Amino acid sequence: MIPLQFEAFTIMTIFWIVIIAWCIIGIILAIWVYRDAESRGMNGALWLIIVILLGIIGLIIYLVVRE
Fold first, then answer.
1. CA 28, CA 50: separation in Å to the nearest integer?
2. Measured torsion, CA atoms of residues 49, 55, 57, 63, in degrees rounded to the nearest 10
3. Which helix or strand (DSSP H or E) is residue 3 part of?
4. One pLDDT digit (tens) per residue for the chain, 67 residues
């Protein structure tokens, strides 16, 4: 039987790994949107801020309205 203390440590470790991975993916997406917007002649800084603030919804909006 696994001690309760080990199970709590494992659950918390997995939780923090998921949170850190989510943040890293968000940053990578924001950088990609910035570079893509700049290459298309759009305001990259504006889209970077939108994607950082709105997350996946901001990314979807960008993909719909990009030139």
1. 14
2. 60
3. none
4. 555 566 666 888 889 999 999 999 999 999 999 999 999 999 999 999 999 999 899 999 999 999 7
